[in-house]
C-alpha cells in the first residue's frame, strides 16, 4: 500500500515539475492546434515536432543564425574573388621566382 503512495507522490511531483516548467501548457497548445487543423497531417508526430520547435525564442535565434551564415558565405565569396584579383596583379609586378637549387 505504501508503494502505491510513493509512486503517486512521485507522479504528482513530476506533474508539478512539468507544469512549473511550462511543458504542460506548450503540449496543450500544440495538441489543440493539431485538433483544430481542418486537414489532419499524415504524420502527427512530425506535426508536433515542427510546432514544438517553432514556438520558442530559439526559432528566432535559428533564423538569425541562418541569415548570418548566408551573409558570411557571400562575404567569403567576395573576399576570395578579391584575393584572386590581387594575386593576379601581384604576379604582374613580381618576376617569376625560381626554385632554389641545393
UniProtKB/TrEMBL annotation:
Keywords: Nucleus. It comes from the Eukaryota. Residues 78-88 have a biased composition (Basic and acidic residues). GO terms for molecular function: transcription coactivator activity. Its main location: nucleus. One of its GO terms (cellular component) is nucleus. Residues 78-102 are annotated as: Disordered. It is found in: Nucleus. InterPro entries: AMY1. Belongs to the AMY1 family. This is Uncharacterized protein.
Amino acid at each position: 500500500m505504501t508503494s502505491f503512495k510513493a509512486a503517486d507522490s512521485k507522479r504528482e511531483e513530476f506533474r508539478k515539475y512539468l507544469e512549473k516548467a511550462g511543458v504542460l501548457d506548450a503540449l496543450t497548445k500544440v495538441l489543440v492546434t493539431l485538433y483544430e487543423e481542418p486537414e489532419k497531417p499524415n504524420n502527427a508526430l512530425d506535426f508536433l515536432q515542427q510546432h514544438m520547435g517553432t514556438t520558442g525564442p530559439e526559432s528566432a535565434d535559428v533564423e538569425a543564425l541562418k541569415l548570418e551564415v548566408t551573409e558570411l558565405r557571400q562575404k567569403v565569396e567576395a573576399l576570395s574573388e578579391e584575393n584572386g584579383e590581387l594575386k593576379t596583379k601581384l604576379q604582374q609586378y613580381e618576376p617569376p621566382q625560381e626554385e632554389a637549387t641545393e
